[in-house]
Design brief:
Number of helices: 2
Distance between the termini: 19 Å
Organism: Streptomyces caeni
Protein name: Ferredoxin
CATH class: Alpha Beta
Pfam families: Fer4_13 (PF13370)
Strand content: 15-25%
Structural class: alpha+beta
Cofactor: [3Fe-4S] cluster
CATH topology: Alpha-Beta Plaits
Order of helices and strands: EHEEHEE
Keywords: 3Fe-4S, Electron transport, Iron, Iron-sulfur, Metal-binding, Transport
Oligomer: single chain
Radius of gyration: 11 Å
Length: 81
């Protein structure tokens, strides 16, 4: 699985950090930091975090199919922050 957060789109709502704190965190008041390769364990929480993003700033590749590393785009969008 691979995560990409469009930091230009992210507005810092922190929904992702609330729902998947092991993957997303706010640094300071607005800067989002995240693990681009979170592994398999937080998959359900990650899917919720991606879906909760009000501005759809997060893309999660391979979220829909855990067995296929080339699986394309669980287009999760979680407000980066």
């Amino acid at each position: 699985m691979r995560l990409v957060v469009d930091l230009n789109r992210c507005q810092g709502y922190a929904q992702c950090a609330f729902l998947a704190p092991d993957v997303f965190a706010l640094y300071g008041e607005e800067s989002l930091v995240y693990d681009p390769h979170p592994g398999e364990e937080p998959r359900e929480r990650l899917a919720r975090a991606v879906a909760a993003c009000p501005v759809q700033a997060i893309t999660a590749e391979g979220l829909d199919d855990p067995g296929d590393p080339s699986a394309g785009a669980g287009r999760g969008t979680s407000r980066g922050g």
